[in-house]
Amino acid sequence: MHRRDWLISGGAAAGAWRFHVQAPSARLTGQEPQREAPIPRTPAALRGTGPLKITDVKTILTAPAKIRLVVVKVTTSEPGLYGLGCATFTQRARVVKTAVDEFLRPFLIGKDPLAIEDLWQSCFVSSYWRNGPVLGNALSGVDMALWDILGKRTGVPVYQLLGGKCRQAVDTYRHASGGSFKEVEDSVRKAIEAGWRHVRAQIAVEGLATYGAAANRGAVDATAENARAEIWEPRKYTRIVPRMFEHLRSVLGDDVELLHDTHERIPPILAMQLCRDLEPYKLFFLEDPFSPEDVGYFEKLRALTSTPLAMGELFNNPNEWLNLVSGRLIDFIRIHMSQIGGLTPARKVAALCEFFAVRTAWHGPGDVSPVGHAANVHLDLATPNFGVQEARLFSQEEQDVFPGCPELKDGYYYASERAGLGIDLDEKLAERFPITDDPPFDMRWGNLRRRDGAITKP
Ligand code: GCO
Ligand code: MG
């Protein structure tokens, strides 16, 4: 990252204040980031003085990297003061938009945007039935936007509102995959050479629709992509994965932190065997050994294996993670932050986990918007029990649509030092990347079948 002098002015009714922010100078050369002196900042006057009101709430659907993203924009009565939040549930993007525009917007207009907790609680119970992915994402879009507004209004980055940095940068993991051990090895090497210390390794299983690795699925039938049944069988997968890690350790050694995502799609007993088989390769974590419906197996798995366990991207309801955390049954929480309602609940989850030595590893693939990645990073910076952050490269189009994407350098994410979440949205440009429903992404997920034709978890 080239050195940047951010000269950011916060023009405001109470007179403009300026602070000159030097991007952390100790850019990484593969070492741990140096602790910087706190960024000198003139005391930021509270921008504006009159009572602040929400004047509009709108949902922007856009797909600059061909994955449907959902972002909420909350506008306030102070000219130029607005916030952005991620509400991305890519399989049901239009439903989230309806939940925001038709139900939350009428309730929020006229409210005080700084009453973040109170608004979160009201929105959360206003549907009576709650704790689901659609309403959780809708609430998250508003919630993150309110934190963004609070940061802008007070002139500090959101991580400062959460208690300030306990690290200078956020260690991330990169996805690697391939159709053979050698291809996976090359893909992991590429990530290491680009500076990553943590790499997730996935391998395609010949002839099957494997998660996380483009599979050569043998003869591809001619039916349309979203009508084609994707065939999945677990046995070959549970045999090949330990051999892949044996290969990776033999050629790459022990230093690189290797991760793997089982993605909930094998019978629990096979997941338990797999965790045992992987022990010699000392994974950083194995993710989603079970589906959310099978979390009851964690007690048995924990007693059986020393492979570190990560779970949570599919969680919506606190009762899905409370026992896993308080029982010390997992090592990393993998929640998709917008799924549970945004930053307000996520910071509570992080605090809960701290008391049980569970580390955070917030979900962060292609179907988390750059705004969501920014929120992840701000919370990561302020969380003592941070574990690792799933990261991805932002396409040029995404960086154009979302100015201020978190910087990714030497395997570390850096939050923008601007006030708020530090990211913006070019709505005009976003319109140039409309979301498409073909192939309906969820059809792919709703089409994974065992060889006998039975649907299996994706
Ligand atoms: C991960 C996840 C994703 C999900 C995707 C679903 O670990 O990043 O498993 O790859 O499959 O987010 O839409
Ligand atoms: Mg996953």
Please give a structural write-up:
Strands 6, 7, 9, 10, 11, 12, 13, 14, 15 and 16 form a ten-stranded mixed beta sheet that branches. A three-stranded antiparallel beta sheet has the order 3-4-5. The chain has a two-stranded antiparallel sheet with strand order 1-2. A hairpin with a 6-residue loop joins strand 3 (54-62) and strand 4 (69-76). It contains 14 helices and 17 strands. The two termini are 37 Å apart. It has two domains: 45-157, 2-Layer Sandwich (Enolase-like, domain 1), CATH 3.30.390; 161-418, TIM Barrel, CATH 3.20.20. Helix content is 33%, strand content 17%. Residues 1-30, 37-45 and 217-227 have low confidence and may be disordered. The chain is of the alpha/beta class and 458 residues long. The structure holds D-gluconic acid and magnesium ion. D-gluconic acid (GCO) is lined by residues 90, 261, 263, 287, 313, 363, 365, 367, 390.
